[in-house]
Amino acid sequence: MARQKFAVTPGFEVGGTLFRPEQLAMLGTIIGEDARVEMTTFKQLYVEMDEDRVEEAKVKLETVGLQVHPSGFVSKSLITCNFCRGAEDSGLDVAAMLDEVIADHPVPNPLKIGYAGCALGTSEPLLKDIAVIKMKDFYDIYVGGEPRGLKAALAKPLHTGLSPEMLAPTILKLITIYQETGKKKEKFSRFVDRITLEKLRELTRYEQSAHTG
Hints:
Helix 1 (21-31) packs antiparallel against helix 2. A 5-stranded mixed beta sheet has the order 5-6-7-8-9. Strand 2 and strand 3 (45-50) form a beta hairpin. The protein has 2 domains: 3-70, Alpha-Beta Plaits, CATH 3.30.70; 79-207, Sulfite Reductase Hemoprotein, domain 1. The protein has 7 helices and 9 strands; from the N terminus they run E-H-E-E-H-E-E-H-H-E-E-E-E-H-H-H. It has 213 residues and is of the alpha+beta class.
């Protein structure tokens, strides 16, 4: 019997990415005891199960409030902080909007996008491929974080002072550039180094609002 893998996440709220006990219990019931469940580094569960049961399982999982995403070489769902400053001050609504539009795009290599609701950056956004950090009423975008290996590095500033309305267009533009010019299996950090930060800044500059830096 062929097997298929997909990703599951509960979304997020004040407190972070939280699976409720009843969701986990239902997950086990729906996918069955022969399925395999793997915890990823980007706050998703990977589920591997018999291919002929996958579509039915996905529908049932969504009915209990779980989000289902493709696995593999796609942009992952947004990796967020715990919104410890509250929903409004941390920009929970903006994060939810971003999560909806940036996830599941095919890319040359799995793409991790992080979000922090303040400069404390408790979700370690600067170790992600793309980072969004809320700074009072505006947002900064960083690119090219690399968390592993001897060449581990923090993401570099791409744009500062973006309005909430300009976040999704700018990040979607970055994803499109990566899709069109990235090499197969090329990490985003290496892609940024090859294309150069200056070129990426130039290619996405028109997406910015009047408050950008």
